[in-house]
Amino acid sequence: MDERDRVGENQLMIDRVGLADFLRRRREDLQPEDVGLPRGPRRRTTGLRREEVAALCHMSTDYYSRLERERGPQPSEQMIASMAQGLHLSRDERDHLFLLAGHRVPDRISGGDHVSPGMMRIFDRLTDTPAEIVTELGETLRQTALGAAIAGDASPRTGPSRSIGYRWFSDPAARELHPPEDHEFYSRLYVSGLRGAMVRRGPDSRAAHLATLLNENSREFAALWDKHEVGIAPRELKRYQHPTVGLLELNCQVLLDPEQAHALLVYTAVPGSESYEKLQLLSVLAVPVAAE
């Protein structure tokens, strides 16, 4: 089949030549500062190095290099999604990459997992700040190391448990992050937010699926759902009961991407406050985390 491999009935064909060329050109278009990496004084590489892109895409350098050399196995849909994010592709470019790799294009619905390049560029510069990118269902798509140090590493979570609203009513450990006196507000907030998402996305949406699961398995959720509260807004000041440093009081600033229903949350503490000093301590303890 020369440069193309058939990958199965009802599927497309992987275009190895086109895939290799597209990956190489997108890699060469990106500069270190575009993805939050330092530019060394002796750097001569056009764009990013293969090992840098591989790290951004959460794969081995050998695996990525083989794709640029028109070799290796067909990447899975998960791998393609990770490469699209690591290379800061637009949604049109992401769709093109899926087709080159022999996969159907993901549905273009708001609330998907692909973060826009503009939001990623901002996020990449927040290396010393607690921050996260979340969906309208409260699914964390990206975290800074300091963000994970505060709220826990979100990358291992799968299925409904990716949603903080779902975990709030299904996993008692989710509530340990906040002081008990704040729990009632968060319960109302998450129910209100899920109802709003379900109305926007319809009865066949993931929001509706989560609501059905929680109504069946949580009496608290079902009771609040029956109240039909909507429009409850998050508080700007958020309080976290951290197991190492104790109570943190953080201001949360929000940048919205309405096209993809994502929000970039940036947490700060008042300079000189006790919470500010605790953040400095956590920044020493924080370690990089993998993205979902």
Automatic annotation (TrEMBL):
Residues 47-94 form the HTH cro/C1-type domain. Keywords: DNA-binding. One of its GO terms (molecular function) is DNA binding. This is DNA-binding protein. It comes from Conyzicola nivalis. The keyword Nucleotidyltransferase does not apply. SMART domains: HTH_XRE. The lineage of its organism: Bacteria, Bacillati, Actinomycetota, Actinomycetes, Micrococcales. It comes from the Bacteria. It holds the Pfam family HTH_31. The keyword Aminoacyl-tRNA synthetase does not apply. PROSITE patterns: HTH_CROC1.
